[in-house]
Write a structure and sequence with these properties.
binds coenzyme A, 14 strands, alpha/beta, 535 residues
């Protein structure tokens, strides 16, 4: 493969000022991230530690193989909502290596409202299970939770993807041979009791872990029986009398060791094969992404300059380089793994859609994963394009992406607007991971366009009754829409609501995608079957 020849002048004023602006965004990102990671109240942390318990992230550090990375997902879930009382939505999820196996770890953070589940906590737990199911990743549940956050019960309890889905997913995964292991390190109340009870193997910590369908206050209220938590559902009871748990641990560290020992006994795994080569750093320094990545979306950014700082040796086998240049397609390697890349390089025209759909077919026929690099304002509009069938050709692209059964990964490196989001494997198209950069924006259209549309609609309404909109009313409407889109288009707004799997530093993109591909190999990939492409 040829190396991409960069045209970027890293000494130019343009590069330097973009980098300065980007580093400001990075500083803001790190500050927000730190505020979340250290977001529990000091008193709750103190209480937790005084009980001899480790914090959720400390538990994960001990659980994963030494000197291996942990890809934490949606760290900023619930950020900016509920007066920031739920840092990380009270649950830590992510992919780490346990005995050499990519594993999904789901750990309650009891320092956040007793580890209870509100809307985003549920979404995050279920998303982690979805990833585990799709990639056949063994699951470890580090349970320390008071169950449902009772004031939010309507958002948590009864719906299809509510609390009950956890146990449904556990049963389905177990039936697929995806190991389910629970470590009960604290409370495990009511519905929560089913997390360990539905696991293949369960460990419980002495004088710390409890499992019961109804806690002591509920038992007293219901039957008048007075019983301590330990007598009702402690480690001793469950490992020697009820059999609800299988292994008795002295403390957190011991429990984690037992879990690692269990992982030594998991059976052999059939993996998807892939022609992996020796990893190589990009020829162009990934830190240069700070000087290149789009901040002002009005200025075009050559997607190849982004790719050059992401792929091994900056080498890229471009497909249809001379045709439909508003999308860049081609093959490369990321940390030795082969990958097909589709990157936006402008608006989507009919020929852009056809080129992209053709490239998706190449990837699915060769069984190569696809990376979608999104920086998209949307599909082209206007009479000429409608007449030439942009909707028909766009549908071919969407159809190909929806049915592509190789692992898809999506990174939003700029804007993600309109149906471009769909065609480029947005959340609704089941990419195995979807990550945002701190400069990214996501909404149905840009704020300017939305304000323009709504002002026009209002003016047309008034014109029908021979009225004219006053200039100050136009300005007021425009500003309110601009403000709303500015707020809601932020990557922090998106990640808070789990529209993505997290915000990442652009220089980490290679590592994250490589981990994603590695995890996807745990389940052999299906053959792709397409339906009818509208011709
Ligand atoms: N719903 C809402 N808030 C809850 C809660 C629940 N189920 N369980 C605990 N909390 C809140 C507490 O109000 C407290 O909030 P604050 O920090 O704003 O004061 C915080 O979580 C910590 O609770 P606390 O009892 O002080 O902590 P603890 O570590 O001593 O005990 C539990 C934690 C979870 C064991 C205990 O609170 C408990 O038993 N909760 C009730 C569990 C239950 O019955 N759940 C049924 C759900 S189906």
């Amino acid at each position: 493969m040829y190396r991409i020849e960069s045209k970027i002048n890293t000494s130019s004023e343009l590069f330097k000022s973009n980098k300065e602006d980007f580093l400001r965004l990075m500083a803001e990102y790190r500050e927000k991230l730190n505020s979340v990671i250290n977001g529990s109240t000091p008193s709750s942390v103190e209480k937790h530690k005084s009980r001899g318990k480790l914090l959720a992230r400390e538990r994960i550090d001990l659980l994963i193989d030494p000197n291996t990375p942990f890809l934490e997902l949606s760290t900023m879930a619930a950020y900016g909502q509920y007066e920031n009382q739920f840092p990380s939505a009270g649950i830590i999820t992510g992919i780490g290596m346990v005995q050499g196996r990519e594993t999904m770890i789901i750990a309650n953070d009891a320092t956040v409202k007793g580890g209870t589940y509100m809307k985003e906590t549920i979404k995050k737990h279920i998303r982690a299970q979805e990833i585990a199911m799709e990639n056949h990743l063994a699951c470890i549940y580090m349970v320390d939770s008071g169950g449902v956050f009772l004031p939010d019960q309507a958002n948590v309890f009864p719906d299809r993807f509510g609390f009950g889905r956890f146990f449904f997913n556990q049963a389905r995964m177990s039936s697929l041979g995806i190991p389910q292991v629970a470590i009960v390190m604290g409370s495990c109340t009511a519905g929560g009791a089913y997390v360990p009870a539905m696991s293949d193997e369960t460990i419980i910590v002495k004088n710390q872990g409890t499992i019961f369908i109804g806690g002591p206050p509920l038992v007293k209220a219901a039957t008048g029986e007075i019983v301590t938590a330990e007598e009702l559902g402690g480690a001793d009871v469950h490992t020697s009398i009820s059999g609800v748990a299988d292994h008795y641990a002295e403390n957190d560290r011991h429990a984690i060791l037992i879990c690692r020992n269990i992982f030594e006994t998991l059976g052999h795994k059939v993996k998807q094969t892939l022609d992996i080569i020796k990893p190589e750093e990009p020829f162009y320094n990934p830190e240069e992404l700070y000087g290149i990545a789009p901040i002002d979306f009005k200025k075009p950014v050559d997607a190849k300059e982004i790719i050059a700082r992401m792929v091994d040796g900056s080498r890229f086998q471009e497909f249809k380089a001379r045709y439909a240049p508003t999308v860049v397609t081609g093959f490369a390697h990321i940390m030795g793994y082969p990958i097909g890349i589709i990157a936006n390089n402008g608006v989507i025209f009919s020929e852009t859609s056809l080129k992209s759909a053709h490239f998706v077919e190449l990837c699915t026929s060769r069984k190569i994963p696809i990376l979608f690099l999104q920086n998209i304002t949307g599909f082209i509009v206007g009479r000429e394009y409608e007449r030439r069938g942009i909707a028909r050709d766009g549908a071919k692209f969407v159809h190909a992406v929806a049915n592509a059964d190789v692992p898809k990964f999506t990174v939003v490196f700029g804007g993600s607007f309109g149906a471009g989001n769909y065609a480029m494997a947005g959340r609704a198209y089941d990419p195995r991971l979807l990550m945002m950069w701190p400069n990214s924006r996501i909404s149905v259209m840009g704020g300017e366009q939305a304000a323009g549309v709504l002002v026009q609609v209002k003016q047309d309404q008034l014109a029908a009754s021979n009225k004219v909109m006053k200039a100050e009313d136009i300005e007021k409407l425009r500003n309110s829409i601009l403000q709303k889109y500015d707020f809601e288009g932020s990557p922090y707004f998106s990640t808070s609501r789990l529209w993505d799997d997290g915000i990442i530093d652009p220089t980490d993109t290679r590592k994250v995608i490589a981990m994603g591909i590695a995890m996807s190999l745990n389940k052999p990939w299906d053959d792709t079957k397409y339906g009818i492409f509208r011709m």
